[in-house]
Design goal:
heterotetramer, A: alpha/beta, Glutaconate Coenzyme A-transferase, 3-stranded antiparallel sheet, 11 strands, B: alpha/beta, 10-stranded mixed sheet, 3-stranded mixed sheet, 5 helices, 20% helix
Chain lengths: 223, 215, 215, 223
């Protein structure tokens, strides 16, 4: 079960029209090489699930600028005017979800919860279409799990089995998305033999990861 | 004029910093809230929380010493202090949602006398989106709005009832502006403090909601 | 007699092991299920999951080499293989609940023709409690019951309808006993295989539910 | 804000009648010294929340054998006949919760969720008194958050600020309980200066921990 392959071979597993989760926060922790290759392969009609729209030529912005995205589920787009322009033109449908709710909905899918109850968004427009559940006299929104066909994630270090370790604030959504997609493709800056990562320090266990790609250089500049 | 602008923003940041207590875990939003970190009283220790995944935000790094994986929620390079910790986004927001965040300081497009806050949707634009703001205002133990009292063209930002889409309903505890400090109470806005040189008449004139000066 | 007992248990464990596929993530319950690990076909790699917090259970440690912090869910000292990982109990059960566990192998007090399983509450006792069994049977992609066909005093454990408190309703996929292998189908129990030397009449006589031998 | 103190000073913060969460799985990862001291101090009428009843003189069994427990919320008691005897005698009220649900309910309290939807226990006796919620045609049990007055947890390593690192299968419920109690007391085998634990490797951030006790020797044998 060798999981290591090239970025092109990995990205070619993504199908047109797929729902794709993408890690990172304003590009930090984004799988830049996978995204650059995906943008080049022109696999389009994608629904993306991500924290933010990042920047026009950094993070998920690479897919947006390449015109591959038909729908974006995210918490913030303010750093990328490109997505706003495309949304205004009716080219991209945008759905905003509070960032903490987004994280927890992805986790719920990965950890097999049927839903979670949160207060974020109560009394706001995002209540629309959602059930309100009372528990012991308090109101909560019922939020459903959010899963994807593919997750594209990034780790600082990975072994050949797929165990991953993140660094700094680049962890963000990556370990959550690793649990919540049918196909999980992890880009790793450093690839090490199995057994080199202390089992206590693994942040994403290998059983969640299907494909590993080592970063060999990123096409296109960052930000 | 520019100096005046800077003095007004510094007053807000300095005044918010006086609300912090030793040991507080605090999240600062983008803009004026970020400046609060510069005015923490030296006798207390405050732990700053970054919703992109860590506690213990330290000062900006020296040029050339930036770690590209360590940014704050606004995208600027920062550092992490000894004793800080990184974690994933569920923990970042679990800290907020679970009652472990003492204070959230946010900016506002509008804030009203019921403690409603609008700061995420701009009419006519698809974005920018709420980011972590809805989670912050519904989860933090105390929500402080740090804002200039009026918009650039002089319209009140503090109103009787928000007209923009809400970030949260009845969640603001305190409003600190360049004219003074207002507490949100069940009976409406209560004056806590005027910025030196500001009169209550000026404050009231620039506010589109009634301000009481006695509880 | 003792040898016979051992042979019967080994048959069960060996037969369950044949159900495993390369790359499967598998959780083994206490008792006969634990023995399955000894019979994994050499041409495949299976990853064993321990609900107390890791994947990659390795063989028992040498005496004197035990790490007191590495035990299996039954409390025995074990090891972790290279490539394994430790995590907390929410991840341990998230793996089960989230559809990441291919097979759970459990023992039974009773199992019935509808795929109901009872293995946690003993009448007249307050315990022992379900531990992780309810999560395992409701979360694993496939649930295999590995059990002796009858109780020590010869009563059938495979029944038309469980009388003991259930661990889960309609969750068993396959039953492997010392008499053979039964599949739970919407139409009831279907014979997949008889242990060599066992007749279908003997199997049926020792089972308190109807067994079909054709789909 | 010095958080380090002796086991006796720490344990004396526990009040008679409190609800106390206790980490560990069959004693592994249990705060053995805190439990030994608590048993000696005879602070009683406790409600305990724990994974299992451990053994009569190991883990939470220390409290049960000392007669300090009036109610136990746990997933398994089969390794400790002492609790079964006391339950039969009407001395301890026992409530069983599926282990994964127990973990997730504690996390829900710590992470501020109003509830979670699970399938464990559907069609069984533990449905009793719980709401069933349908989501997209599937049934789930609504499980509520579970919190405590005090959490007694154990880590392999901690710093003076309260950052914790666990080892092996001793992690189990400890990091969850660290988030879900008003007062969190952590016993650490090794105590190190602030700054010695890599911020990437912290498993429980210091902000969750109120009191740190360094293990100085455990009274009473293990198992």
């Amino acid at each position: 079960m060798e999981k290591v392959m090239t970025a092109v071979d990995a990205v070619n597993r993504v199908k047109r029209g797929s729902t794709v989760m993408i890690g990172g926060f304003l590009g930090v922790g984004a799988p830049q090489q996978l995204l650059a290759v995906l943008a080049k392969q022109m696999i389009n009609e994608l629904t993306i699930i991500c924290c933010a729209a990042d920047y026009p030529h950094n993070g998920v912005g690479r897919l947006i600028s390449a015109g591959l995205v038909k729908r974006a589920i995210l918490s913030h787009s303010g750093t990328n005017l490109e997505i706003e322009a495309r949304a205004a033109a009716g080219e991209i449908e945008v759905e905003f979800i509070p960032q903490g709710t987004l994280a927890e909905r992805i986790r719920a899918a990965g950890m097999g919860l049927g839903g979670i109850l949160v207060t974020a968004g109560l009394g706001t427009a995002i209540e629309k279409g959602k059930r309100t559940i009372e528990v012991d006299g308090n109101s909560f929104l019922l939020e459903k799990p959010l899963k994807a066909d593919v997750a594209l994630i990034k780790a600082a270090r990975g072994d050949h089995a797929g165990n991953l370790v993140y660094h700094g604030a680049a962890r963000n959504f990556n370990p959550l998305m690793a649990t919540a997609a049918d196909l999980v493709i992890a880009e790793v800056a450093e690839l090490v033999p199995v057994g080199e990562i202390n089992p206590d320090q693994v942040m994403t266990p290998a059983i969640f990861v299907d494909i590993i790609v080592q970063t060999t250089g990123i096409e296109g500049g960052i930000k | 004029m520019k100096n005046d602008n800077r003095a007004r923003r510094e007053y807000i940041a300095r005044r918010v910093a006086q609300e912090l207590k030793d040991g507080d875990v605090v999240n600062l939003g983008i803009g004026i809230p970020t400046m609060v970190a510069n005015f923490v009283p030296p006798e207390i220790t405050v732990i700053f929380h970054s919703e992109n995944g860590f506690v213990g935000i330290g000062p900006s790094p020296q040029v050339g010493e930036e770690d590209p994986d360590i940014i704050n929620a606004g995208g600027q390079p920062v550092t992490i202090l000894p004793g800080g910790a990184f974690f994933d986004s569920t923990v970042a927001f679990g800290i907020i949602r679970g009652g472990h965040l003492d204070i959230a300081v946010l900016g506002a497009l509008e804030v009203d006398a019921q403690g409603n806050l609008a700061n995420w949707a701009i009419p006519g634009r698809s974005g920018p989106g709420m980011g972590g703001a809805m989670d912050l205002v519904s989860g933090a133990k105390r929500v402080i709005v740090a804002t200039e009292h009026t918009t650039k063209d002089g319209r009140p930002k503090i109103v009787e009832r928000c007209s923009l889409p809400l970030t949260g309903g009845q969640i603001v505890d305190l409003i600190v502006s360049d004219l003074g400090v207002l507490e949100v109470t069940p009976a409406g806005l209560l004056l806590k403090e005027l910025r030196p040189g500001v009169t209550i008449d000026e404050l009231q004139a620039k506010t589109a909601a009634e301000i009481r000066d006695k509880p």
